[in-house]
Amino acid sequence: MNIVSFAPLAVVLPILGAALTFVLIRHSRAQRAVSITLLSLTLLLECVLLASVWDGGTAAVNVGGWLPPWGIVLVVDQFSSLMLVVSSSVSLAVLVYATGQGMADGDQDAPLSIFHPTYLILVAGVSNAFLSGDLFNLYVGFEILLTASYVLMTLGGTGPRIRAGVTYVVVSVVSSILFLIAIAMIYGATGTINMADLAIKLADLDPGTRMLLHVMLLVAFGIKAAVFPLSFWLPDSYPTAPAPVTAVFAGLLTKVGVYAMVRTETLLFPGDSLNTPLMVAALLTMVVGIMGALAQSDIKRLLSFTLVSHIGYMVFGLAMSSVAGLGAAVFYVTHHITIQTSLFLVTGLIERRGGSSSIDRVAGLAKLSPVLALLFFIPAMNLAGIPPFSGFLGKLGLLQAGVQLGTPLAYALVIGGVLTSLLTLLAIARVWNRAFWRKPEDAENPDPVLLAAPEDAETGDRAGKRNVTLLPRTMVGSTMGLVAFGVALTVFAGPLFRVADQSAVEMLDRTSYIQAVLGEHAPVPPIAQEGRK
Amino acid sequence: MSVNLTLLTVMGALYACGIYLIMERSLTRVLLGLMLLANATNLLILATGGYAGLAPMFSKDTDPGDYSDPLPQALILTSIVISFAVTAFMLGIIYRTWVLARQDEIQDDVEDIRVAETPSFDAEDDAEIPVETSEFPLTMIGSDGRGISDSGISDGGASGASRASDGGASGASDGGASDGRDGGIATVKVGDRKIAAEDAAAEEQPGSQNVIAGPEGGVK
After folding, report:
1. DSSP secondary structure string, A336-371?
2. Average pLDDT over residues A504-524
3. How many C-beta atoms surround the C-beta of residue A391 within 10 A?
4. Mutate which of A128, A166, A186, A240 to disrupt the B interface (most B C-beta within 10 Å)?
5. Average model confidence (pLDDT) for chain B?
6. 42-71 in B: which are within 8 Å (CB) of A?
7. What ipTM goes with this model?
8. How far is CA A290 from CA A129, A211, A294, B50, in A?
9. Residue A423: pLDDT over 90
């Protein structure tokens, strides 16, 4: 009995939690306890899974005892278990933050009590997508997380959320249908949907057919991952959702798309000549995204645009299809999930403390709440890639890999990457200057909360005290935990980069994956060499 | 692999109608379009299973090639369940839109339009900042080289000097208020009228009685 046999629990535990919290819908305290306990257990299990493959190797579980390629198979390797651990840590932090917010606001009755079951189903969908070794199961994972995300996106059913929800739902459904069409085509062409089996059988197909299937999958995943020009929906829909929801969406959902792209590129269609279009898409994603961020005055929208922009870095690393590039991309995904989520959580705190998330209205927060300033500053500098943070290390790895590749397009991407990093710094510095350093009196239309006289040290009196919403300790604590996790990624960047590089070697080699799923005697086809440097 | 032509034709028609419908602005039509697309895809999956054969109930006497492929049907079943959930959710959204806005249309993002219409000039970031040249800033030189008076704190001879340079500078911007002393009361020139310095100072303070807060800034 191997520890990896328990991998399905990473999906089952959150679903069990969802069922329990749904039953306990009238008991908010029990609901909170159940969801936090079960998510912690899931995280613990995933840490054990990561530890079991930390030194390399791949393990597969046949769900229900059906042998591959007929049954559904879950695959645990370094990349998938690393993604699981990071995504669950982030989800746990956001869950604690959301419960803190719920307790502070006192909204303990329906419909917000639906939050816990839906959230846990979202986590289950994300875990399923990361673990899946079967193309259709990957689709089901996507659908689980998307359907849960529709509900979370429109939570409360206010006008703006419904408006944003419509765009989001329609775009997601269309991308899912594209994915399903691609699956049907692939099944029609090869007669299998097991990814390891496909890796062998797709190699025998006619290059034209293979290219068609490849492009269809990439377009479907490109919409989910918000790669330019398929990213238009993201900044429209994310900012209106409640702060914890936006945070977890920004951290996880697009990264599931990136994960699927990585698997497509490395496992299913290695060495096909789509690297050049991918690189161009990466460059455009980076530059166009960050240009959008510069125009925004709402912090949430600004962060949504930086999210789109930084997806470009990951696609860049993927498109190089070298060990250095792919390893850096894996590291960058890990870093970006954590940092982007913490920034959105901090924005939720800013909105709470300053009454608005528009940088025209918020001001003087550095003086009002130094802790908040610190919590914003660290991930913000990390996002912009200032040394010594993990954002810098990830970008450095990507740029090194780009220079190593040495083609003109790679150099263009290196320059684009540096430029994007600088422009991110500019966008973030604008937020910092206005929301934190500017005096409230200088703001165009400051919120009355900001103008309340500072606390009198002697009497503890606070003028306009009723207006000032203090930050609940749970919310600040969970944000602090996530920021600390981001800093830990910097501190332990060495071992992490080693694992990322090793996972890149294994993904590009494919032997470990295919043999773990199909048995030790499965033939590993040579990689089609066209278009590969 | 043999393919059923009727199925393929129906599938094509469904895709065509579905794509046409999701381009519409009315939400109900978009929903209908999505349903057609999902069903067309189901037919596509069915077509990948090849010709219709025997029910896949295992018996040793039957040649394996005679069975229908059961996998596409399992996939279709899953995809039907998923599209059912999505359709139900979309209906809920459409109903909610109707309750909220009494219309069944996809609406534009207000913030998007606002950002698009915002001029590139940002008063806070891009306004001219006077260059300070002296250690005691009584008169400052603007970037155009002309003097900009420092209102309020000047007196005596310095006041006279600054007033002399006011002619060109006042009215150049809102901030270019000149100071004057009429009958011992300090006044500030605002635009084309003069108000007492104390009133002007009060207006500078937030929460002033003279200013009614409005969503687009203070309104006097």
Report:
1. HHHHHHHHHHHHHHHHHHHS-SBTTT---HHHH-HH
2. 84
3. 28
4. A166
5. 72
6. 44-45, 47-48, 71
7. 0.85
8. 29, 31, 6, 48
9. yes
Cα A43 from chain centroid?
16
pLDDT digits (tens, 9 = 90+) for B151-163: 444 444 444 444 4
**What per-residue confidence (pLDDT) applies to B52?**
74
Interchain CB contact of A159 with B (< 8 Å):
yes
Does A476 have pLDDT greater than 70?
yes
Instruction: Say if residue A145's pLDDT is above 90.
Output: yes
Per-residue pLDDT, averaged over A160-188, amounts to: 91
Tokens standing for B113? Answer: 């339009």
pLDDT-based confidence at residue B133 (cuts at 50, 70, 90)? low
d(CA B31, CA B44): 20
pTM of the complete model: 0.83
**Number of separate helices (H) and strands (E) present in chain B:** 7, 7
Closest alpha carbon within chain B to A71: B71
Q: Which residues of A touch B38 (CB under 8 A)?
A: 173, 177
> What CA dihedral angle connects A180, A182, A187 and A189, to 10 degrees?
160
Contact A162 B97 (CB under 8 A): yes
* Contact call for A181 and B44, based on CB within 8 A: yes
- Residue A445 is nearest to which of B85, B96, B217, comparing CB atoms? B217
Angle at A379 between CA A376 and CA A385, to 5 degrees: 130
Distance CA A155, CA B92 (A): 12
